[in-house]
């Protein structure tokens, strides 16, 4: 989680209250290769940050 805070701080000033809030709502999740994070038609309720590795995205019309 510290990596995310440092990344945000490299772009903007972050108050200690904002940092505490991020820690209170954020969760670290490790995902396996091939795991689907969001399915078609699913309401998106989360934001994902990739710390290590890569992520692919597909859009089918």
What would you say this structure looks like, in words?
By secondary structure, the protein is an all-alpha fold. The protein has one domain. Helices cover 30% and strands 0% of the residues. The chain contains 2 helices and no strands.
Question: Helices, strands, pairings?
Answer:
Layout: H1 2-9, H2 16-25
Number of helical stretches of at least 4 residues: 2
Strand proportion, as a percent range, falls in under 5%
Identify the overall geometry. elongated
Major sheet: none
Cα-atom Rg, whole angstroms? Answer: 14 Å
Tell me the domain tally.
Answer: 1
Q: What is the residue-mean pLDDT, rounded to a whole number?
A: 89
SSE sequence, one letter per element: HH
E-strand count: 0
| Estimated structural class | mainly alpha
Helix fraction, binned, reads 25-40%
Report the end-to-end length measured between terminal Cα atoms.
Answer: 36 Å
Low-confidence stretches: none
């Amino acid at each position: 989680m510290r990596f995310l805070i440092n990344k945000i701080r490299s772009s903007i000033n972050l108050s200690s209250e904002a940092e505490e809030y991020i820690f209170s709502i954020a969760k670290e999740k490790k995902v396996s290769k091939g795991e689907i994070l969001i399915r078609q038609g699913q309401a998106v309720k989360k934001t994902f940050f990739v710390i290590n590795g890569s992520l692919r995205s597909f859009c089918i019309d």
